[in-house]
Amino acid sequence: MSALAVSSIGDLVKYRDNWNYNALGASGAVSAVLFVSILFAPKMGIYIYLIPIPVPGYIFAPLYLLYCWYMAKRNMDNIGHTAHFWGAVYGLLFPIVCKPGILAFCLSQFGILLQ
């Protein structure tokens, strides 16, 4: 639930003086949930519409963040790319802050062990 609020903060600040701007949705929170799942299962395959093969989460995650950042900078459509970006970042950071051992668990799936 907190991801819903956190992912919207960027747009609230950016468009605080624009009374014509309106955005409502849960897509930032959905990005957070997706990135939490990538944190727990980084090798999990993620299917992207019209691409018939799964993309591993650890490849999808940085590409998705770059895409959201780029599209937010372009600001050419009515999609909340900033909310998607911050929701995804929050989905990675919030679990690690709450339980730091999650990072070690994630890295252990690649054979990297933290002491």
* Widest sheet, order of strands: 1-2
Beta-strand content estimate: under 5%
Net shape: globular
- Which regions are unreliable across 5 or more consecutive residues at pLDDT < 50? none
Q: How does this structure look, described?
A:
This protein has 115 residues and is mostly helical. Strands 1-2 form a two-stranded antiparallel sheet. The chain is built from 5 helices and 2 strands, in the order H-H-E-E-H-H-H. It starts with a helix and ends in a 7-residue tail after the last helix.
In a nutshell, what does this entry contain?
This protein has helices at residues 2-14, 27-40, 57-74, 81-98, 101-108; strands spanning 45-46, 55-56.
Give the key terms:
single chain, 115 residues, two-stranded antiparallel ribbon, 5 helices, 2 strands, 62% helix
SSE blueprint:
Elements: H1 2-14, H2 27-40, E1 45-46, E2 55-56, H3 57-74, H4 81-98, H5 101-108
Antiparallel strand pairs: 1-2
Helix pairs in contact: 1-2, 1-4, 2-4, 3-4
